[in-house]
């Protein structure tokens, strides 16, 4: 009976998550009918066109058939392979004109739109959904300090699958973040289940799909290294994981590794690090963008200097979290470290986008049972930080609807009982209310009030300042929580069990 009830809960949550994705995909997307470059939808379609008609050695190289100034590939090879597979299986077989070389730019027929949307949904169903389910069960067996009842399983799965930020970006704006994020969740679940080689391979695949997965790399490195150092043959354990990672990278990068000439000509690495765009582009809730209101970083420093400054501050900010896991690796500490390290990159790394908030939100969703309030707060301000982008995409209706659904489900499916209530009714309620009033006001003001001509991006700046302040408060909280997780007695006990 318990198994049947759990299966029913998981099925209902999953089907509802699919339904929301389908409904959002019926709406507009990035760059719809807006030449000359359209938007992210066109970028993904164009990559299918290029990978279908140009040999792999030319995918990242400027040529007559591959104009890099028009949505050139700027993600690792696994994204290119994914584009090839989607183009071949979905579009080329049914609407070949939608991926025809040169002549298909801006192609937007109803059938091709349906097929393009289907590629995103199928990616979710094949990778993100199974990974989320795998994590929920691994978490219940190995990590959870909350009662692993049926309601808790359903609620935690809902928090991962119904994250409105991910649904809006992938199924509204149009991207494939569910692939790299799904591979990362699978890697976390495998490691928690003590299948560390499998986890290392999955995370290597995530890195080879989107380079922003490196946001999680210090947490993986700290936890796995800390575990290996406590085993009987630490060097052997480290080598096993190292070979798994190197082997995965070698397979993915094979077309560019058979000769130094091919590797240099492909220019893959230069495409993955677009430093020419500056330390930040649009308004985003990162340290560099917010502080630029006072310190004009781009005027004061060269690109080379900014790369060094950004690199150094990023390392310094994630180092405490990583060092903690090397010294006292624990399953819960690992998940907290994923959140803390990813926020270090979001705050301080070079060229952060609005959509990058999806990376810290992933481990926040994995911590939903332990940190229900922190997760919901980050979702709210993660949504707000992407609000200007989603307004430009005409996704306001979808934005409001998904946010309301999330609040309703978060409030009604109380899977963690007293933990959630204790967090929600805290003494900080007055400050929280004030922050929410500011957030609601900015939502409305951005839509109906014209900014002063002298400051055309005033409201974007105010939104990002508010979001940055909330993110910073939560990061301080979660870093403190990570360092308080292990007492000396618990550390020594956990070492015996490794």
Automatic annotation (TrEMBL):
Q: Which first-to-last residue range defines the signal peptide?
A: 1-31
Q: Which GO terms describe its molecular function?
A: dolichyl pyrophosphate Man9GlcNAc2 alpha-1,3-glucosyltransferase activity
Q: Which InterPro entries match?
A: Glyco_trans_ALG6/ALG8 (IPR004856)
Q: Which residues cross the membrane?
A: 114-139, 151-169, 181-206, 212-229, 241-258, 333-350, 357-375, 395-411, 431-449, 455-476
Q: Does the keyword Transmembrane helix apply?
A: yes
Q: Which GO terms describe its biological process?
A: dolichol-linked oligosaccharide biosynthetic process
Cellular component per GO? endoplasmic reticulum membrane
Identify the pathway: Protein modification; protein glycosylation
Q: Where does it localize? A: Endoplasmic reticulum membrane
The family database entries (Pfam families) matched by this protein are listed as:
Alg6_Alg8 (PF03155)
> How is this protein situated with respect to the membrane?
Multi-pass membrane protein
Query: Which Enzyme Commission numbers does its entry carry?
Result: 2.4.1.-
What keywords would UniProt list here? Endoplasmic reticulum, Glycosyltransferase, Membrane, Signal, Transferase, Transmembrane, Transmembrane helix
Q: What class of enzyme is it?
A: transferase
Which domain of life does the UniProt lineage start with? Answer: Eukaryota
Record-stated family: Belongs to the ALG6/ALG8 glucosyltransferase family.
From the Swiss-Prot or TrEMBL record, give the protein name.
Alpha-1,3-glucosyltransferase
Per the UniProt record, the lineage of the source organism begins with:
Eukaryota, Viridiplantae, Streptophyta, Embryophyta, Tracheophyta
């Amino acid at each position: 009976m318990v198994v049947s009830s759990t299966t029913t809960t998981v099925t209902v949550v999953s089907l509802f998550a699919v339904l929301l994705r389908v409904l959002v995909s019926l709406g507009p997307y990035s760059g719809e009918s807006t030449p000359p470059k359209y938007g992210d939808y066109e970028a993904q379609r164009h990559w299918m066109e290029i990978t279908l008609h140009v040999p792999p050695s030319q995918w990242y190289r400027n040529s007559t058939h591959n104009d890099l100034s028009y949505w050139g590939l700027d993600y690792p090879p696994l994204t290119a392979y994914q584009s090839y597979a989607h183009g071949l299986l979905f579009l080329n077989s049914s609407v070949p004109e939608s991926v025809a070389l040169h002549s298909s730019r801006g192609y937007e027929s109803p059938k091709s739109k349906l097929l393009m949307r289907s590629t995103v949904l199928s990616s979710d169903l094949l990778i993100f959904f199974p990974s989320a389910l795998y994590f929920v069960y691994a978490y219940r067996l190995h990590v959870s300090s909350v009662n692993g009842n049926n309601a808790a399983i359903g609620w935690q799965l809902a928090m991962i699958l119904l994250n409105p930020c991910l649904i809006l970006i992938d199924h509204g704006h149009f991207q494939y973040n569910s692939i790299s994020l799904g591979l990362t969740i699978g890697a976390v679940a495998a490691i928690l289940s003590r299948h560390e080689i499998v986890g290392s391979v999955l995370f290597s695949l995530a890195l080879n799909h989107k380079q922003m997965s490196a946001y999680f790399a210090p947490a993986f490195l700290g936890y796995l290294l800390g575990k290996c150092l406590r085993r009987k043959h630490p060097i052997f354990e480290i080598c096993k994981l190292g070979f798994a990672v190197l082997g995965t990278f070698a397979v993915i990068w094979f077309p560019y590794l058979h000769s130094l000439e091919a590797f240099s000509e492909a220019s893959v690495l230069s495409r993955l690090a677009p430093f020419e765009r500056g330390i930040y582009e649009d308004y985003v809730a990162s340290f560099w963008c917010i502080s630029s209101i006072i310190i004009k970083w781009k005027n004061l420093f060269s690109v080379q200097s900014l790369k060094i400054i950004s690199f150094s501050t990023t390392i310094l900010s994630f180092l405490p979290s990583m060092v903690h896991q090397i010294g006292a690796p624990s399953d819960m500490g690992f998940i907290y470290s994923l959140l803390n390290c990813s926020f270090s990159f979001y705050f301080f790394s070079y060229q952060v986008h609005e959509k990058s908030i999806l990376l810290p939100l992933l481990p926040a969703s994995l911590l939903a049972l332990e940190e229900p309030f922190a997760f919901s707060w980050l979702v709210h301000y993660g949504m707000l930080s992407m609000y200007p982008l989603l307004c430009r995409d005409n996704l306001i209706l979808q934005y409001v609807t998904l946010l309301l659904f999330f609040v309703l489900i978060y409030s009604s499916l109380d899977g963690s009982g007293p933990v959630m209530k204790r967090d929600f009714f805290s003494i900080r309620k007055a400050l929280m209310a004030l922050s929410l009033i500011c957030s609601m006001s900015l939502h409305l003001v951005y839509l109906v009030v014209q900014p002063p001509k002298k400051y055309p991006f005033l409201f974007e700046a105010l939104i990002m300042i508010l979001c940055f302040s909330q993110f910073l408060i939560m990061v301080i909280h979660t870093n403190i929580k990570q360092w308080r997780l292990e007492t000396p007695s618990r550390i020594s006990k956990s070492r015996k069990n490794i």
